[in-house]
C-alpha cells in the first residue's frame, strides 16, 4: 500500500501495516519496531524537579563556600562560631539534597546529550562524575573533620548528628 510522498522527496513511501499478524513473525516485527523506535520515556528536557535540585545545589554550594570563607577570615568570636555553624548546616542540608537528587536521578532518565565528538562526551561524563563525587565527599569530610576536632555537628541547630569519627587531639 502506497501513500503520498513526504514533503520534498517526490517519492512514494510504504505505509506501515497495522493489522495484527499471528505467530512468530508478528512477535519478531513487534520486537524490531520496539527496539528501533525512539523511547517516549526519554525526555527532551530535564524535569522541573531535576532543574530545582540543580539550582538549589548550585546556590547552596556557593552560599556554603561564601559563609565558610567569610568565617575563616574572622577573628575568634561568637559571630565566627555562628558562621561556622551555618556553614555546617549548609553542608548537612546539601548532603541531604544530594541524596535526594541521586534518588531522583536513579528513577528519572535524563535527556540525551546533544551531538558532540566522543572525547567531549567522555570528558563531560568524567566532569559530571567528579562533581557528583565532590558533592558527596566534601560535606562528609567536613563532618568527619568537625568530629575529629571535637566539635559536634548539629543540623539546623536542633538535630545533633552522630559523631562517626572520634576526637583527635592532634587536630
Q: What do you see in this structure?
A:
It is built from four helices and four strands; from the N terminus they run ββααααββ. By secondary structure, the protein is mostly helical. Strands 1-2 form a two-stranded antiparallel sheet. α2 runs antiparallel to α3 and α3 crosses α4. It starts with a strand and ends in an 11-residue tail after the last strand. 8% of the residues are buried.
Quick structural overview:
The chain is 58% helix and 5% strand. With 171 residues, the chain is mainly alpha-helical.
SSE layout and pairing:
Elements: E1 2-3, E2 13-14, H1 24-36, H2 48-72, H3 78-107, H4 118-148, E3 154-155, E4 159-160
Helix pairs in contact: 2-3, 3-4
The major β-sheet equals: 2 strands, antiparallel
Strand order in space, largest sheet: 1-2
End-to-end C-alpha gap: 81 Å
What's the overall average pLDDT, rounded?
Answer: 80
Helix fraction bin: 55-70%
